TrEMBL record:
Keywords: Signal, TPR repeat. Residues 1-32 form the signal peptide. GO terms for molecular function: identical protein binding. It holds the Pfam family TPR_19. Gene3D superfamilies: Tetratricopeptide repeat domain (1.25.40.10). This is Flp pilus assembly protein TadD. The keyword Signal applies. TPR repeats lie at residues 140-173. It comes from Aminobacter aminovorans.
Length: 269
């Protein structure tokens, strides 16, 4: 099993990536940012589409956006599509322009925070998400998003307090439980992380990202066969194997994988 020290750098890097992915999903789930635009994506919300599926739609959405850049639903769709394609700077530019036109709109501020976080601008993202929140009627998605940004900024205890507040507002919500689990991965407490992630994955509405985070936490403990089995529930066998191979390669860069093999060999002798 990996010690906290041996998994620290790799685990933190992967956990931060996973937290950012769930942050994007949770903020995208707020209000109108999940709107569809007529025939685009055959009525499917952009943030639920794969990179391959969205590829052909980006140009289409872009043309509609260019003809009417102040159209809020279209601009939100276009920004989300650009993020899926990895074009974070362009997505941020779209949202910055929209935020100027809608300076007090809750959905726009939430999506603007999403774009800022995707670009690594976590403090401005935090400000935008907080401005989008309404204290008298808090949105659990925004509470969880704020917590995930705080985790990225290293404010662990404040982040966990907010995760638990989000769970009070939305009990057993898998995305919040998953974010909380990944917070423990960042700290190197893999056992606690696995507990929360298993709880998240057991929820009936848990999605692929939640289960992949559980596979990550299990893999970071050296249980690669189990991690691959968990990953295979959501991916093709080839994709699952590729994910686990990547994780092994990352760990090998720090000799962690060699340490695991040596420990296993000594136990067998």
């Amino acid at each position: 099993m990996l010690t906290n020290r041996s998994m620290n750098a790799t685990g933190k890097r992967l956990a931060r990536m996973a937290l950012l992915t769930l942050l994007m999903a949770s903020v995208a789930g707020c209000g109108a940012s999940r709107m569809t635009t007529g025939s685009i994506g055959r009525g499917k919300a952009v943030d639920t589409m794969s990179t391959g599926a969205i590829g052909g739609s980006v140009d289409q959405i872009g043309r509609i956006y260019a003809s009417d850049p102040n159209n809020k639903p279209v601009a939100l769709q276009y920004a989300s599509a650009l993020q899926i394609k990895g074009q974070t700077d362009q997505s941020l530019a779209v949202m910055r322009k929209l935020a100027i036109g809608y300076p007090k709109d809750r959905d726009v501020l939430a999506a603007y925070g999403k774009a800022l976080a995707a670009s690594g601008q976590f403090q401005p993202a935090l400000d935008a998400v907080r401005r989008a929140q309404t204290p008298e009627y808090p949105d659990w998605k925004l509470v969880s998003a704020e917590a995930a940004i705080l985790d990225q900024l290293g404010q662990t205890q404040d982040a966990r307090s907010l995760y638990r507040k989000a769970l009070d507002l939305k009990p057993n919500e898998p995305s919040v439980l998953s974010n909380l689990g990944m917070s423990y991965v960042l700290e190197g407490d893999l056992k606690s992380a696995e507990t929360y992630l298993r709880s998240a994955a057991s929820q009936p509405d848990a999605d692929s990202r939640v289960r992949q985070n559980l596979a990550l936490a299990v893999g970071l403990q050296g249980r690669f066969d189990e991690a691959e089995q968990i990953a295979s529930q959501e991916l093709s066998p080839e994709q699952a194997q590729a994910n686990v191979s990547y994780l092994r390669g990352m760990l090998a860069q720090q000799n962690a994988w060699n340490q695991i093999k040596a420990d296993d060999k000594s136990k067998k002798n």
